Amino acid sequence: MINFGDALRLFREERALSLRELGTLSGVNFAYIQRPESNDKTAPSDEKIDDLCGALKLTPQRKGVLRALMTMPAVPDALFDAMRQHPAATVDAFIVAAKVSFRGNRPVTPQDWIAHLDMLDIDVLKKRDK
Questions:
Q1: Average pLDDT score over residue span 38-54
Q2: Average pLDDT in the 46-67 region?
Q3: Which residues contact 7 (CB under 8 A, 6 or more apart)?
Q4: CATH fourth-level superfamily of 1-74
Q5: CA-CA distances (angstroms) from residue 64 to 31, 50, 67, 87, 126?
């Protein structure tokens, strides 16, 4: 399961940055960054999130996922991986997918989640058009 701190660490590692390097690039103390990554502290302020996202060069989708994870329980690894692999998926679909209760087969692989996210995105677009 992936929570806010895990996602922050994975995005940092994706850019091959150490905590100190991210701290320098973002202007956020590296010890402050380490706390959420270690699940020792709740998510940083909106301003610090903006600074971190800018330093990590996150796309709007990834920034939205990180912000969503600040306020929700941990999500399945495969759902998080699906969002990383599918940049066209919306944050709205991610949020809905994270909250869905499955009666049948729950998506297991990132590819399963991608198909589910695409289906949810179609539903989201239909509701917006009404």
A1: 86
A2: 95
A3: 65, 66, 69, 80
A4: lambda repressor-like DNA-binding domains (1.10.260.40)
A5: 24, 11, 5, 12, 21
Residue 2, strand partner residues: 75
Nearest to 7 by CA among 46, 45, 58: 58
Q: Residue 64: CB partners within 8 Å, gap ≥ 6?
A: 91, 94
Question: Domain segments of the chain: what residues?
Answer: 1-74, 75-130
Which tokens go with 99?
A: 């909250």
94-128 per-position pLDDT tens digit: 998 998 877 777 888 999 999 888 888 776 555 55
pTM, rounded to two decimals: 0.86
How far, rounded to the nearest angstrom, does the alpha carbon of residue 86 sit from its chain's CA centroid?
12
List the one residue out of 77, 74, 4 whose CA is nearest residue 39: 4
Residues 28-53 as b/e (b if ≥16 CB within 10 A, e otherwise) read: beeeebbebbeeeeebbeeebbebbb
Question: Do residues 52 and 70 make contact, with C-beta atoms less than 8 angstroms apart?
Answer: no
- Give the distance from CA 126 to its chain's centroid: 24
